[in-house]
Amino acid sequence: MKSYTKIFTACVLALSLSSCNGWLDITPQGLTTEKNLFEDYDGYRSALNGIYQQMASADLYGRELSWGFMSALSQYYDFGSMDNTQLYTYTEKMDYENKEVLDYMEGIWQTAYNTVANCNVLISHIEEADPQMFPYVDSGEKGMIHGEALAARALMHFEVLRLFAPAPVVDRTSKSIPYSTTYPDKVPTRYTTGEVLEKIVADLQAALPLLEQNDRNLSALQTASNRFAANDSRGLFFGYRGTRLHYWAVKALLARVYMYAGDYANALTTAKEVYDTCKEWFPLTDYTTANGVSGAIKFYDDIIFASYDQYLVDNYDDVMLANQSAAANFMLALRSPQNRFTGQTTYDIRYKFGINRPDEEEQENVYASCKYVKYSRTGGDIESASNDTQGALIPVIRMSEIMMIIAECQARGESGQGDGVISEAVSTLNAVLQARSRNRYKVSASTFDEFMKELEDEMWKENIGEGQYFFYLKRINSPTLVTAASQTIQMSGKYVFDIPDSETNLLQ
Question: I want to staple 199 with a disulfide (CB 3.0 to 4.6 A). Which of 109, 179, 244, 312 is the partner?
């Protein structure tokens, strides 16, 4: 694939300028070689930092895999009378042959696989590196870097798989996407969906023992205020563990992968391990905590892993306010969210603090998410979130998802088809809902179908601006997507995107 033939070091340079200027002067014109990059421990740190910055780019978690393309695809936004020149117009229409959608797919594919290529270069060097090269050998610095690179490689392949291949429940045996473990990989081999999932699991499992020494009992992970701060005595590289693929983040993502693969037994076991060990580390954000936030509100207490983009607020504003002269044409106005929160609007924090409500005088019927920028709760001017702790975070996986995985597995039972103990599943799901609603809201269900209907509704609420709702529907092969405005979209043929034309001639 084209992205694999790019010069690795040029990419790292482009992505690491903000944090690793020191080694840029090694060679003329700001370029360096692999050999020079990995001469000392600082080069390994720089390479890993570059990978995370690339993951936070607009093509990936910084926009398209979170509040941009994936959210538009999931019908969160109401584009109303906006003309066809506006962003996401054809995405919202699910017109997959339109150039707009094709360009988004190209960008996601290229950037994800470029990130994979960078991971592969780093992995190939860290495997051979002397552990004594690293200053904090006693806390497993080499293993930590290696484990994070393996996990990043797995995660990028997983995101590509979820877009460009059928869900496993539909087809596990047809050729899907490449899984690259070498650099360069000029003629990559396509594997079946089942094979790709096995490779993803293998990489995540391989990462865990490498990360365990530093992370398993790391005190800095045990509160959000420490997890998302530069609070490690070893230096900045060891801080902000909540924005890195630490041990428990990898374990949580492994549960998500097992769930997507239909391996409900392992999904349940893995998710329960995360919950049982870390429920006090990643407690669900409650009413009091949410009410005290100034700036963008992410309900960040329960975020296990988040991508970090220091320019997120500005980037979001650039899209959100594209047509600020016309209130009805706000780019990212939510589609009738109040309908999803009927009877809960005064106490469910996901609505009360997470959604800006209409201002009758100024904003008419415009609703907007507060996850990436803070609005005044009665409308009006946008308050800056640039200096807020939560402002730069893009949630990737939360404890609430872990609890929902547990609940669904409890309902599915040993067969995976719904012969589980529904009362247990309802109780687990209600633990999420009651935390979000000051113990004022819970659901009931007596059958598997009833439970799954309630779960789907809560998945929508939990994932506003986070990009996971579409993948949930795809995983269960839901025949329809029902919007908050009660519009029903038939999803046959709409869950799988074609591999970009620019890549197909390079694949085996």
Answer: 179
Instruction: Judge if the upstream peptide bond of residue 184 is cis by omega within 30 degrees of 0.
Output: yes
In a domain, 376, yes or no: yes
Report the C-alpha gap between 5 and 127 in whole angstroms: 22
Residue 366 lies in a domain: yes
In angstroms, the CA 60 to CA 257 distance is 18
Per DSSP, the three-state class of 480 is: strand
How many folded domains does the chain comprise?
Answer: 1
- Residue 306 near residue 394, CB atoms below 8 Å: yes
Residue 298 lies in a domain: yes
Tokens encoding 250 = 């990898």
- Between CA 228 and CA 190 the distance in angstroms is 37
d(CA 106, CA 94): 16
The HSE-up count of residue 154 (CA atoms within 13 Å, CB side) is 28
Residue 362 CB partners (closer than 8 Å, separation 6+): 327, 379, 380
Name the residue type at position 191. Answer: Y
Structure tokens, 348:
């469910």
Which run of H or of E encompasses 343?
none
* Dist CA 155 CA 253 (whole Å): 8
**Is the residue at 325 inside a domain?**
yes
Q: What tens digit of pLDDT does each residue of 150-189 get?
A: 999 999 999 999 999 999 999 999 999 999 999 988 878 9
User: What is the pTM for the complete model shown?
Assistant: 0.92
Lookup: tokens for 11: 């990419």
Question: Which pLDDT band, with edges at 50, 70 and 90, does 79 fall under?
Answer: confident
Q: Which amino acid is at 461?
A: K
